[in-house]
Amino acid sequence: MKLFSRHFKKNWFRHLLQWGVLFAIIITMTNVFSKTSSDPEAYCPFGGLQAFGSYLSSETLACSMTTVQVLMGLALGVGVILFGKLFCGYLCPVGLVSEYMFKFRKKTKIKGIEIANGTVVDKILRSVKYILLFIVFYMTLSTSELFCKNFDPYYAAATGFHGEITLWMAVASLVILFLGSFFIKLFWCKYVCPLGALSNLFKFTISFLSMIILYIILIQLGLNIPWLYLLITACLMGYILEVFMVKPKVFPLIKVNKDEGKCTDCGLCSKKCPYNLPVDKNKVVKEVDCTLCGECLSACPSDALTFNKKKYNRWLPAILTIVLFIIALIIGSKWEMPTINETWGDNIEDVKLKTFKMEGLSSVHCYGSSKAFSAKLRRVPGVYGVSTFVKTQTANILYDPTQTSEEEIMGATYTPVKFKIVNPELSDSLIKVITMYTEKMYDKLDPNYLGMQFRQYGNDKYFGIETKFSCPLTVHLYMDIDEPVDKEFLKNIVEKRQLIIRSADGQENIRDLNFEFVKIETETDTITRRDFLERHFNKYNSRYKENIKKFAGLDSASLVVPFPELDKPIYSRNIPYLSSYLSLNEGVLRLETFLDDNDTPSMKIVYVPSVISGEKLWENLCSDKWSVKMTSGEIKEIDARLDFKDKKQQTE
């Protein structure tokens, strides 16, 4: 406790910010005040800078990145250039852990490893963060996915190892962070952190901007220079300037200054510096490692050290850190960058195009779904471009009004949906079908949300929903034959403004809705229970052409497995994985799902008994691991997605 209070005494603002950020992250990730899941990358400046790089290179934002994150990254860059490494010194939770691991070692009196600045070992180790910087940006710009998530120790810890991580990378990073920083002062920050490398590059502002300007000039002159060469040059330049201890001349604008008249040459400033910088030997501290943390100012007993020779600048770096964060947060929340921004077609500059703004696109929630939406639009005659905005779930579509219309675009991109609310009872031999019309419900996920509302607020008399494109949208509602048609009740369900979705672990996600009830048809129809179940069962039928050709002429048999859970999406979406796994089994010819005579979802696997026995096939089905063929052609082993161990089988 004595160490804790002394440590805070003279530099309390900085440590208040550091610990405040850490506690805020812990509270957010543990959902103490909310059951709604949180995004651990929401304000990550490094992710924002990667996303911005992806946007510049391909006009796409890395999946799940938002404008707020991009603005946080840009604020970091501006902050480093103008003022210094403020994020590293005042906000970074990984830096805080690294710093306190060293303090913990000193308390335990365990001998550490000293690596002096400028030594051969120091120079070699400094290359690691630039190599990682290259790998991270190369992979992110190539795939539009944040590669840093694979190994980022903060992301792994914040998600409880449930995020988009590569396990061995994340574990290795955490081990390096804790053990490396325990034995070597600020090991992670000084030698491993790719954001530290990028921040150091920003500090060499004149060299960095000169390189960017030269690249732009060469591009404008018609030289097609891939961004890869710019990335390689930037990483090499940053490393060379750092290891040769080149000190930035003009930028950043805030530096630690020493009043030699007040200095007593006690050396405490250098001793307390987290990076072991020779503060006592400099009149002005220009070293690239300096984060303006203020530890040297707090250690100085004679007040000989100041920021820019002004005593009242003591808290300026901390204040600027907060100001930049708030500015980025405000601008980012009011302005949105497109996730993709694509145009196609020849001579479109000669066509008078209009912009159609589609709203409520719940299924367009990341880069991948944006590309899928774009692929649909490319098949629509008269459409020449699209920009998607995943935060507001909207899209701006460029089209030629002489070739198509807004309604035709909506119809061409619409996906009819069937959603089962509950299973009818066996006694429900006949089911009533009514027709409603709605607006603002054109996304393929919207009927699912409406069905969930019926589950939460209706009763077991409403069985399913089926949609068909029209303006307004046609919605068929399947219900108990004896249930009266209550227009006000149906209108109230359709126009509920929020849907609470509970995940398996009990977390609540709130989905804002904006559906509008238009009208309801007076006429009704009826279908049988079997017809309803058939309509709402997603059948799957896959034939394995290579095996069929290879084993043509041989007798086949069928293994039938009743699988009642197959009418639930959480199970049925795994059928393609099972199919891929079975297709790699010698002698398996086909997989089909169907409803048996008892209305039970079942699957049929056709195989050649002389090649693979029924017992071996069943053993393979019950395996804990599946080998599946990925879209890239790679064979990958995954955990079994369906459990057959408690299922019964029959052979035909």
Defining key terms:
652 residues, alpha+beta, Alpha-Beta Plaits, 4 domains
| CA-based shape | elongated
Terminal Cα span: 75 Å
Strand content: 15-25%
| Overall pLDDT score | 90
Low-confidence stretches are 1-7
* Rg from Cα: 31 Å
Helix content: 40-55%
- Helical segment tally? 25
Largest sheet: 6 strands, antiparallel
- How many domains? The number is 4
- What structural class do helix, strand and pairing data support? alpha+beta
Beta strands, count: 22
Written description of the protein model:
The chain has 652 residues and is α+β, with helices and mostly antiparallel strands. It has four domains: 2-37 and 45-313, no CATH class; 340-413, 2-Layer Sandwich (Alpha-Beta Plaits), CATH 3.30.70.100; 418-535; 541-651, Alpha-Beta Plaits (2-Layer Sandwich), CATH 3.30.70. It is built from 25 helices and 22 strands. The strands form six sheets. Strands 8, 9, 10, 11, 14 and 15 form a six-stranded antiparallel sheet that branches. Strand 20 (625-629) and strand 21 form a beta hairpin. Helix 6 crosses helix 9 (167-183) and helix 7 (120-143) packs across helix 11. The protein is elongated. The protein starts with a helix and ends with a strand. The model is unreliable at 1-7 (pLDDT under 50).
